[in-house]
Specification:
Mean pLDDT: 97
Largest sheet: 11 strands, mixed
Low-confidence stretches: none
Distance between the termini: 19 Å
Number of strands: 15
C-alpha cells in the first residue's frame, strides 16, 4: 500500500486499526519528497531525524492505544514564513541569517505539535511571500509536480507541491492575496484561506490584516480536521477569533439548499481560458444536481486593484524600511521595486485604500444576505512557465494582473477555498473558488466536501516525470 496516497483521516484510521504505523507513513512521505526534490524544489530544509524520532514515539502511543491528539503521527509540512522551533525561518531571503536562537513556534505550528503531528520540513516561499509564484534569491525556482517546466504558483508553492507529491497530506500555508489558493489550484489540491483571525498569526505579517494562515490538504475533510486543530485564540495575536465549534462536524448536510451565486468572470472583467471556464461550469452544474440553488450573477464591485497594491506595496516597504543599501541589493529585484513604490505612498494614500477596502467589505456583506456562497474560477488560467512573475506575453507587470479572483477576498477577509475540478488539455490542474461571508468557513467546507463525497472531485497524488 502506498501510504503517500492516503488522506490524514485514512492514515489515522490505519494507525488505529494497526494496518500500518506512523513510522512507515513518515518514511514513505520523506522518500516521496526526496525523490522529487531535485526536479521540484519544494523544500527549504528537511527535519528528517526529528521526524523519524517523533514517528517512533507516535507508533508506540498507537501500540498502547493512547494517541496524544487529533493528528498523532500524521506527516505535516510548514511554509517557511511560519516559525518552527529549532529551525531557522529565512522567508526565502538572503537578508536573514541562520544564526540565532529559534525557540518559538508560530501559533498554528504549536497547535499541530500539541496534537502529535510529525513535521517533515519547511517548504519554499518567494522572498517574504511577496508574489504569486514561488522563486526566491535564497532557494531558486519551485516547479509544478504536474509539469516541472511550469510554476507552482505562490506564495505557498512549496507547500502545494509537497501535498501534491504525497510528501505529507497536510501543510500549513499563508495567504495575503491568494497565496494558498493560487498554488493549490495550480497543483491540484484543496486549499482554504479561513476568515481572517480564525487561525492566529504570530509574528504579525508585514502585510497586516491581508494575510491569513490556513490548511493545504488532499481534500476538504482533511482541511476541516486541520482547522479544528489550528483555529482558536492565541495570546500573541490580538486579532484572533474565539473558538467556532467543530469544522469536521459542520461537513454534514451536503450542498442541498445552499444558495450559490456563480460568477464566471466577475462581471466580465476577466478573460478566462476556455478549459478553465468549462471545468468550473461543469462543477457548478454538479452542485445544482446535488440540490444547491444556483444563479449566475456577479457581486457588486469593480476591480479593487489600486487599493490592494497600496496596502501590499506599503507592507513590503515596511519590511525593508531599515535595510542598508547592501541588504537591499540582496533582495529579489521585483520586491525591491514594489518596496520603492510603497515607500513613496503617503498616509493619505493608505487611508484611501482602507476606505476602498471598507466599502468592498460592505458590498460583499450585503451580497451574502442573498447568497450563502459565491463560486468563481480560482484563476483564469492554468500554470504557466516557471521562474516568471507573469505569463509570457502578459500585458501585466505584477502577479496581481493574473489573480483577479483571489486578492479581493483578502481585502474583505472572507473565507475562500479552491477545489480541483479537472485538468486542461496539457494535463494541468484547474481550480474552482468557493467564497462565503466572514465567519462562515463552515459553509465553504460543507460545499467543497459535498463535491468530494459525491466523487465529483477525487484527490490524487502525482509523481513528476523522470523521478
Amino acid at each position: 500500500m502506498q501510504l503517500t496516497d492516503l488522506t490524514a483521516r485514512r492514515l489515522l484510521d490505519g494507525y488505529r486499526k494497526g494496518e500500518f504505523s506512523p513510522v512507515e507513513a513518515v518514511e514513505q512521505a520523506l522518500a516521496a519528497a526526496r525523490r522529487a526534490e531535485p526536479s521540484v524544489n519544494a523544500f527549504v530544509r528537511f527535519t528528517e531525524d526529528e521526524a523519524l524520532a517523533r514517528a517512533r514515539e507516535s507508533a508506540e502511543r498507537w501500540r498502547r492505544g493512547e494517541p496524544t491528539g487529533l493528528l498523532d503521527g500524521v506527516p505535516v509540512t510548514v511554509k517557511d514564513l511560519l516559525l518552527m522551533r529549532g529551525y531557522p525561518t529565512l522567508r526565502g531571503s538572503r537578508t536573514l541569517s541562520e544564526q540565532g536562537v529559534f525557540d518559538e513556534d508560530a501559533p498554528s505550528v504549536a497547535r499541530l505539535r500539541e496534537q502529535g503531528a510529525v513535521f517533515l520540513g519547511k517548504t519554499t516561499t518567494p522572498e517574504f511571500g511577496w508574489k504569486g509564484v514561488t522563486d526566491s534569491p535564497l532557494t531558486g525556482v519551485t516547479r509544478n509536480p504536474y509539469d516541472v517546466s511550469r510554476t507552482t504558483g505562490g506564495s505557498s508553492g512549496g507547500s502545494a507541491a509537497a501535498v501534491a507529491l504525497g510528501a505529507g497530506p497536510l501543510s500549513l500555508g499563508t495567504d495575503g492575496g491568494g497565496s494558498i489558493r493560487i498554488p493549490a489550484a495550480f497543483c491540484g489540491i484543496f486549499g482554504l484561506k479561513p476568515t481572517y483571525g480564525r487561525v492566529p498569526l504570530y509574528p504579525a505579517s508585514p502585510f497586516g490584516t491581508l494575510s491569513h494562515v490556513g490548511p493545504m490538504t488532499r481534500d476538504a475533510a482533511d482541511a476541516a480536521l486541520m482547522l479544528d486543530v489550528i483555529a482558536g485564540p492565541d495570546a500573541r495575536d490580538w486579532s484572533a477569533l474565539p473558538p467556532a465549534g467543530s469544522f469536521t462536524q459542520a461537513l454534514t448536510g451536503g450542498a442541498r439548499g445552499l444558495r450559490i451565486a456563480y460568477s464566471p468572470s466577475l462581471g466580465g472583467q476577466v478573460a478566462v481560458q476556455p478549459a478553465v471556464a468549462a471545468a468550473v461550469r461543469r462543477t457548478v452544474a454538479a452542485l445544482a444536481d446535488l440540490g444547491a440553488y444556483v444563479e449566475e450573477t456577479d457581486p457588486d464591485f469593480s476591480e479593487p486593484l489600486e487599493a490592494f497594491h497600496t496596502l501590499w506595496f506599503t507592507g513590503a516597504a515596511r519590511i525593508t524600511q531599515r535595510f542598508s543599501p547592501h541588504r537591499r541589493g540582496l533582495l529579489d529585484p521585483g520586491l525591491r521595486e514594489i518596496c520603492a513604490q510603497g515607500a513613496r505612498m503617503s498616509a493619505l494614500d493608505y487611508l484611501a485604500a482602507v476606505d476602498a477596502r471598507t466599502d468592498l467589505g460592505r458590498r460583499m456583506g450585503r451580497f451574502h444576505e442573498r447568497y450563502d456562497l459565491l463560486v468563481t474560477p480560482t484563476l483564469p488560467l492554468t500554470a504557466f512557465e516557471a521562474g516568471a512573475e507573469v505569463p509570457r506575453g502578459s500585458a501585466h507587470r505584477r502577479w496581481t494582473g493574473w489573480t483577479p479572483f483571489t486578492y479581493p477576498f483578502n481585502l474583505t477577509q472572507q473565507p475562500a477555498a479552491t477545489v480541483p475540478v479537472g485538468r486542461d488539455g496539457a494535463g494541468l490542474p484547474i481550480g474552482m473558488q468557493i467564497v462565503a461571508a466572514r465567519h462562515r468557513d463552515d459553509l465553504v467546507l460543507r460545499a467543497a466536501h459535498a463535491l468530494y463525497a459525491a466523487d465529483v472531485v477525487v484527490p490524487e497524488v502525482v509523481t513528476p516525470a523522470g523521478t
